[in-house]
Structure prediction request, 120 residues.
Amino acid sequence: QVQLVESGGGLVQAGGSLRLSCAASGSIFRLNTMCWYRQAPGKQRELVATITLAGTTNYSDSVKGRFTISREVAKRTVYLQMNSLKPEDTADYYCHADVQTLNLGFQTYWGQGTQVTVSS
Prediction:
């Protein structure tokens, strides 16, 4: 089993910052591409940012220049630094990982989500 646990969400004023963390544990041989998604109330889940094992990053246009995804490979942890937060960033944020498991299979996993609320 592989588990992804997000943390760092909360309530913040517009213009403020939050740093989300996602720690992976379990039967992991290697974490490959990791992503952050978000889902706002009444909206579909959308991809926010991705980072490869080599450190290549991609961002949705809505967060580009404000959010930064990073990772510490040895700690099996990915982060999302969110600056200049806007009310429209309010959502549940989910960590997603492409995992090569100890039995040498490839599987994808989701975290439980962490809530981010940005007040105006």
Remarks:
- Residues 39 and 45 are 4 Å apart (CA to CA).
- The chain has a mean pLDDT of 96.
